[in-house]
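Input/output pair, single chain:
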Amino acid sequence: MRSTHNAPASRIRRSVLILAFAVTLVAVPLTARRASSAEPQAPAMAFKADAGMVFYQIKPDKTADFEQVMAKVKEALSKIDDPVRKQQAASWRIFRADEPMAGNVLYVFFMDPAVKGADYDFVKMLGEGFKNDPKMVQDLYAKLKGAFAGGGNLLNLHLVQKMGGM
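Output:
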């Protein structure tokens, strides 16, 4: 037998749950809209110094994939008309170390001079340079993701002394 005293409490609980659900439906899109209209976030891959380096450990069996993606980044940069991207490309060199690091192959990105505050996210560069081929960009990203043995380490470098020349 059902108690009549519980009926009002269950209706209140149900009403509160429905109200909470409705508020969630409205609040989530508002929060998303507010976040998208907010100021853009600072780039995660940016330098604040005169020069910079980024170290990446790549799985030994994936070096060809990594180098193929970096060749596509170079191609993408050549297609982008943005003068900042042109400046980034002009001072960006990629080296591969002979010595292994924790059993992986070490790649060093060297930017001298670094374009201060510019976004060096090369996945974004691929998207900009190949905006008409998002499938290729996704495939390159998957290849890149599979090549990493760990995240990159970014260093901001301030010139202390030149040992030769002026």
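The chain is about 50% helix and 15% strand. Residues 15-37 have pLDDT under 50 and may be disordered.
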